[in-house]
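Most newcomers find our protein records easier to grasp once they have seen one. Read left to right, the backbone structure tokens trace the chain's path through space. Nothing more is needed to start thinking about how sequence determines fold. An example says more than a description, so a record of this kind follows:
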Amino acid sequence: MTHDTGSFHPENAGRLKAIVAALEQTPWADHLDWREPTPVTQRGEVDSLIAQIHNPRYVTALREIAHTGGGQIDGDTVVSEASYAVARLAVSAWLDGVDYVLETGHSAFVLARPPGHHAVRDRGMGFCLFSNAAIAAHYALEKSTINRVAILDWDVHHGNGTQALVEQNAAIAYCSLHQLPAYPGTGHSSETGFHGNVLNLPMPPGSASADYDAQFEQKVIPFLKAFRPDLLIVSAGYDATAADPLASVNLNPQDYGTFTRQCLSVTPNILFGLEGGYDYDALSQSVLATIAARLGV
């Protein structure tokens, strides 16, 4: 909540408040196991993992911007006094999620901000400070039971940062469905990674449920199954709903339940992590649909 982007910024603390309030009111609220992220002081690998993925000069600059009271990285991406500490804690939460999934065989959903899939090695952008999903994937590969990790990014914007940070690693696959043309302008189908490990599925403005269902059935799920991941990380952005103000795709919140059930045919070991989604009601209902599908309720 203390990553303060300002009253009128679409990526604000109200997003998490709306999601939590909706989850607490569901008839299956007692099925949920709420956990606080491990403090960074108790998880020494957070900073070393960030330094592996991001240029240490960028990390230092981000810390200094926060230390001096905050500022902006670009026209969209705000840093407040607490943002550096919060972004590190968000990374810790994603790592906790990896640990939980691998230890229990159950899924976890990381309700954290700032989001991460636009952050590249040398800078944050697009509301994102650290590349949470890419960091989590590299962390998972350090585990003896994990040989391959897949990342599915269903945010309406292409995860340019995630792709750039994993596409050279043959043990990580990246798949993204995203509106194109749209920010950040990347994610063309011709971008296939260094090992054929990237699948980009650009969706034209106006795409709807049937369009996404076809892509999942014909391309997304076959690609993921062929890769045979030991862990599936979902960059769970919910800005492809018709109500969202920042894009022009027409999904319904219930569609994310369908996507989740499709993912379960790949592996039960799924880590969901929040990315975009800026209409509070559509966002919260989409998260509920995702979790309800995973719980089978």
Remarks:
- Residues 274 and 297 are 21 Å apart (CA to CA).
- The chain has one domain: 14-35+94-295.
- The chain has nine helices and eight strands.
